[in-house]
Amino acid sequence: MDSETIGFMPAVKLAELIRRRKISPVEYLRGLLSRIATLGPKVNAFAYLAADRAMDDAKKAELAVMRGEQVGRLHGVPVTLKDLLMTKDMPTQYGSKIFAGNQPDEDAPVVSRLVAEGAIMLGKTTTSEFGMGSPGISRSPLTGITSNPWKLGYNAGASSGGAAAAAAAGFGPLHQGGDGGGSIRLPAHFCGVFGLKPSFGRVPFYPVSIGGHIGPITRTVADAALMLEAMAGPHFLDHTTLEGKPDNYVNRLREGIRGKRIAYSPNLGVASVDPEVAELAQSAVRRFTELGAVVEEVPTPWAKEGPELFRFFWSAAMTKYAQYLPEWQLDMEPGFVDSIKQSGSIPLSRYNEMRKREMVYVANIHRWFQDWDFLLTPSAPIASGALEKLLPDLAWVDFFYPFNMSWNPAASVPCGFTQDGLPVGLQIVGKRFDDLGVLQASAAFEELQPWAEKRPRL
Hints:
Blueprint: H1 3-8, H2 11-19, H3 25-43, E1 46-49, H4 51-66, E2 78-82, H5 109-116, E3 120-125, E4 139-140, E5 144-145, E6 147-148, E7 151-155, H6 161-169, E8 174-179, H7 185-191, E9 194-197, E10 213-218, H8 221-231, E11 261-264, H9 275-286, E12 294-297, H10 306-318, H11 325-328, H12 334-343, H13 348-368, E13 374-378, H14 401-405, E14 410-417, E15 423-430, H15 435-448
Helix pairs in contact: 3-4, 6-7, 8-15, 10-12, 10-13
């Protein structure tokens, strides 16, 4: 197989061919590692590449298939992990020089589940510092700049920029991302791939997070469904995980969305959207009527509270990193340092007041969703831009953070390209717990307007 075939083969197809002994996991991985060695330096998507470990695991995977052993759903399929996820056999450095070489003594539950399904851990992908530095910009003081494969030197998004860039560049089919305020969906939007933030609690998060979501970044919806099946379900180390087991996402993807009621908001009443991005998103929205859905542009009155709330809690989250400034300030990302310094101290009474307002805001979102199956918006107000010209801007995530606070599932699906050849995404938001519905809506759009065969020229 050539480099393109190897790099862009979907996980669903690869897993099947490995099970049928049509593809050797060893030969596939050897070809993939060769592609990464050749093209990887242009993109800089990896914080750590576990080539030797991956090859050892590929040899074990091949031997298991040849012996006719029962194998998991992801047997022999390579997966990357974000450099915020704990791994006992690979460094977890949080994109920061403060934790350079840090080696945890246990795996996060997601890692154990992927390994149990036969996945091969390919390495750790780059992230902005602690997933917080310079909001939305794929830059880290530890690993440097991660480039958008569609235009090198352009932003791949953050904080899961390495995962999205790896998916877009054809560095394997499955990539784990994390999303606390758009960190899966923004990179997916910028890099022209599919990214899903599941319902909060669908996938175990450890150490436990009050707002973190773990989800897949892939080139196809079916691959994301397969990866989510492997990762989801309750876990004793995360008391916030949902009790129910995951749906049979892969086998139910093609049930369609005929008769579904879909709301569309071009700006949520708060965002300023680039005209070219707005036009591409609106064109994609119109296609949902071809799928038999009822689509209506409607107001979102709950959204006006969002910007103030998100900016307050973002600032509050910064305070815990102030402990590193005395010793590490000069080695930290400058935009991150500025954000920490600006956060200041927040009185407990003020924090409690804002938390109450947030609960009202969230209730209003869920009340509004009683009338709608899905909400469509642009994924982000702009397409990617040159990294040296970008300033961190929380306005980039105005379409994302409401559903981190409300815990709804939401995905970014590629919906077109600007005249400069930069990808644009459409966000699909579902009711709380309806991860299957979001995947089905995404799959229906993907079938109507495929994107996976569109590849950057590296």
